[in-house]
Design goal:
Largest sheet: 5 strands, mixed
Shape: globular
CATH topology of the largest domain: Peroxisomal Thiolase, Chain A, domain 1
Helix content: 25-40%
CATH superfamily of the largest domain: Thiolase/Chalcone synthase
Number of strands: 13
Number of domains: 2
Strand order of the largest sheet: 1-7-6-4-5
Number of helices: 10
Bound molecules: coenzyme A
Length: 343
């Protein structure tokens, strides 16, 4: 079977208006701006208005990507949503986006890999495009995390914010005679390689129960007295696992593709903590000036974060044709991985 190339054609991002600054958090829990900024790199995050659904943010990001590409919603074949905070347990946010933007012909469904969601969803969409099943796909990652944060828990409430991002992917034919596996040496734009991993045995490191989850079973995941339906995490365990997981994953792709750190034009990481990102950069040899960041202004927006960082990096004019972009993420699950694109 001959596969097709998959390119990122356009991006979009949408953030709510309301800001939660570190000073605001100082009024809610025992913390301070200096601690938060030094330990996480975050200054503020955004919060959805009480009457704004997550799907509205998602649709705005999707429309921005379509507009940039000059592609009508009716031309979209596939929408993959990435979220764990859609306002409905079902259907997925992708179905709501399909309705709201008028992409009537698109097949739409969600995938849930938490903060790795963007990565998993792009790779998932790419499979449909590579085989030629579909030609045009939207990946829409959107989160309303502030609706799942315990604002009495200073360990976690400082981290999370709301936001959405979208990428428009399209497939194109490969030159005749090309084999299934791509190499960075072929010089063509598009998805070159990916590396995904899951460790369900470590589900207890970070999770968020539904209010309906059986209480007794939840206690098998945590030694807390009461497990409330908020985001729960073992920050230190997550911190270590994230650095090792992302650095090893990026390294695997670099080794497989015979790349040096100097060959990577930009690292686009999940935005969880600047110290995690800096440590990953150091481990793989990519300095901070080549790392796409949006953490300081938006905090951790889970699945949406890498797409927001990519969109910002592009709008800053930092992406040039031919650049190698390395994406990497880590999340509850545990799920993690990396992917390599040429712009
Ligand atoms: C959560 C995180 C910021 C905590 O930073 P840290 O440097 O590991 O801090 P620690 O948990 O070791 O806590 C250090 C001290 O600061 C305190 N502290 C924790 N949160 C604080 C806050 N918001 N303000 C002030 N002090 C705080 C702790 O109570 C602890 O005090 P102690 O030494 O008296 O016990 C960091 O571990 C992290 O980012 N982890 C990854 C989280 C993640 O990526 N989650 C996303 C997946 S869901």
């Amino acid at each position: 079977m001959s596969l097709r190339d998959v390119r990122i054609v356009a991006t979009g991002a949408s953030l709510p208006e309301e800001r939660i600054t570190n000073a605001d958090l100082e009024r809610m829990v025992d913390t301070n701006d200096e601690w938060i900024h030094t330990r996480t790199g975050i200054r503020e995050r955004r919060r959805l208005a009480p009457d704004q659904p997550v799907s509205d943010l998602a649709s705005r990001a999707a429309l921005q990507a379509l507009e940039e590409a000059g592609i009508a919603p009716g031309e979209v074949d596939l929408i993959v949503g990435a979220t764990f905070t859609n306002d409905l347990a079902f259907p997925g946010v992708a179905c709501l986006v399909q309705r709201d933007i008028g992409a009537a012909r698109a097949v739409a469904f969600d995938t849930n890999a938490v903060c790795s969601g963007f990565l998993y969803a792009v790779i998932q969409a790419a499979q449909f495009l590579q085989t030629g099943a579909y030609t045009t796909a939207l990946v829409v990652a959107a989160e309303g995390l502030t609706r799942y944060v315990d604002y009495t828990d200073r360990n976690s409430c400082i981290l999370f914010g709301d936001g959405a991002s979208a990428v428009l992917l399209q497939s194109e034919e490969r030159p005749a005679g090309e084999t299934a596996l791509r190499s960075s040496a072929d010089g063509r734009p598009g998805l070159i390689d990916f590396d995904l991993a899951t460790d369900g045995a470590r589900v207890n490191v970070a999770f968020c129960p539904r209010p309906t989850a059986p209480a007794q079973w939840l206690r098998t995941l945590s030694d807390r007295e009461e497990v409330t339906p908020w985001i729960w995490q073992d920050g230190r365990a997550m911190f270590k696992a994230a650095i090792n997981g992302m650095a090893d994953s990026v390294q695997r792709i670099m080794t497989r593709q015979n790349l040096q750190a100097a060959d990577i034009a930009a690292l686009v990481p999940h935005q969880a903590n600047l110290r995690i990102i800096t440590a990953v950069g150091e481990r793989v040899g990519i300095p901070e000036e080549r790392v796409a960041l949006c953490l300081e202004e938006y905090g951790n927006t889970s699945a949406a974060s890498m797409g927001i960082a990519l969109d910002k990096w592009r709008r800053l004019g930092r992406v040039r044709a031919g650049d190698l972009l390395m994406f990497t993420a880590f999340a509850g699950g545990l799920t993690w991985g990396s992917m390599l694109f040429r712009a």
